[in-house]
Amino acid sequence: MHLEKYSLGVGDRFGRQGQAQLRAIIRARDPGFLVIPVWNKSYREHEIIGTTPCDVREEADCAVQSLGWKDAYHVDADHIGMQNVGAFLSSSDFFTLDVANFKGKTAPVEEIDSFVRRHEDLIGRLELQGIQNPLFIDQDSMRKVASRYLCAIQEAGRIYRHILAFKGEGLFIAEISMDETDEPQSPLDMVLILAMVADEGIHAQTIAPKFTGRFNKGIDYVGDPNRFEEEFRSDLAVIEYAIERFGLPKNLKMSVHSGSDKFSIYPSISKALYDFNAGLHLKTAGTTWLEELIGLALSGSEGLCVVREIYTNALGRFDELCAPYAPVISIDSTRLPRAEEVMDWSGEEYAAALRHDPDCLEYNLHFRQMLHVSYKVAAEMGRRYLDALSAFEEVVGQNVEANLFKRHIRRVFRYQMDCSEWQ
User: Fold this and answer.
1) C-alpha distances in Å from residue 98, one per residue of 95, 130, 227, 309
2) CA 260 from chain center: how many Å?
3) Mean pLDDT, rounded, for 373-394
4) Which of 1, 13, 20, 343 sits at 20 to 30 Å (Cα–Cα) from 377?
5) Mean pLDDT across the chain, nearest whole number?
6) Is the sign of the CA dihedral 42, 47, 53, 58 positive or negative?
7) What is the percent of the chain with per-residue pLDDT over 90, rounded to a whole number?
């Protein structure tokens, strides 16, 4: 199974926006540009909402059949480990191998020594096209990187082989997730990590490194865009080198996690992809849920009542809802609107505060992040929330489609799409 050059992770908390998401991707297909949808949902989200991986497969299949999509599409078991991969084996064909629990664990000394001996030919000066300064690799640096990452990549290998035994050779796509480590990976780190991936026999088609700066949920990149661009280009150069040096899949490409709404770095991503002729997998999970709230707010009546109640309920459960997402949110509780204030808002006022439009004076990134982590409240509403989505399906779907196409696909693939789309 071959992952195409450009792909988009489209999360959908409640499984109702498959067609709206696919309509956005079809709009990008019209000028001759192809981006492949990958529906993704994590084990944690399934637990909170009460869905199963089979529900995601059903949503994707139904959207594809309804809209007559003829190109490839996939269903991602997002951020899985050995403890929960079994639930996804039958319904998923894309697996994001998350080894965050093994970060900081060190492999036995003899295995680190074995890795160093196996790759002694890397020792010395390494010049990569696209990286200004050469890399210098010696045994000490190799041991240091191996002590930090070898155990995690070995665990990824165990998960990969478990999936392989069930699915069969060539019948699934594997991604290595390194984005939840404590520090960003340097170019030297990436070279040696990809050597470890090859040693484990993992047929990885995407890798998600950690970059400098914060990739908070649902808001723009927090950090130095210039430094991000340098790191991103360096990683593209390393991937290009590693494919040839270690015999990794020819279509191995970068994956950017929590990639939704990172508007300030999209131009750098697009230009770098163009310059390197490289592919990208971009995960945009939580924006769909927020666009549902915007659509319900703008629908007025019961839709507006529902979203007001979601916020006021969530505000009273701040610590509970924020704790699981603490590493990827930065909410200043003093900047959150009071519950009484929100209960008096019109639909337009609610939408303006929530919609990610930095030029809008009413936009509140703290309000947006608070709601991003509050989907549990909507799940607890049960049929009331789902019935509201059905009742106002047209308005909700329009917002989901426009957000994915105009704010995400069209921006991150600016240099890849027909210029007429920018007129």
Assistant:
1) 9, 28, 25, 35
2) 7
3) 97
4) 20
5) 95
6) negative
7) 90
Q: Which two tokens stand for residue 29?
A: 């297909």
Is the pLDDT assigned to residue 12 strictly greater than 70? Answer: yes
Distance set, CA 220 to CA 8, 107, 224, 343 (Å) = 18, 36, 12, 27
The β-bridge relationship of strands 204-208 and 173-177 is parallel
- Phi (first) and psi of residue 55, to 5 degrees: -65, -35
pLDDT tens sequence across 220-252:
999 999 999 999 999 999 999 999 999 999 999
| pLDDT reported for residue 423 | 32
Nearest of 239, 213, 230, 419 to residue 330 by alpha carbon:
213
d(CA 220, CA 52): 30
Considering only CA atoms, give the Rg of the chain. Answer: 22
Give the helix/strand (H/E) hosting 95: strand 94-98
From 67, 10, 58, 16, select the one nearest 36 (Cα to Cα).
10
Nearest to 142 by CA among 118, 165, 160: 118
Q: Residue 67 in contact with residue 38, Cβ under 8 Å?
A: no
The rounded distance, in Å, linking the Cα atoms of 85 and 92 is: 10
CB 28 within 8 A of CB 7: no
CA-nearest of 273, 259, 293, 294 to 377 is: 293
pLDDT of 420 > 50? The answer is no
Cα separation, 404 vs 413, whole angstroms? 12
Which domains are present in the chain?
6-286+405-422 (3.20.20.70), 287-394 (no CATH)
Residue 65 in tokens: 């059949």
Q: What pTM did the predictor assign?
A: 0.94
Distance CA 319, CA 113 (A): 45
Q: Phi and psi of 281, rounded to 5°? A: -115, 120
Which SS3 state, helix, strand or coil, does residue 221 take?
coil
- Helical H runs in 68-224? 109-118, 139-167, 187-199
For residue 92, which phi and psi values (nearest 5 degrees)?
Answer: -100, 150
User: Following CA atoms 259, 260, 264, 270 in sequence, which dihedral angle do they give, to the nearest 10 degrees?
Assistant: 60
pLDDT of amino acid 337: 98
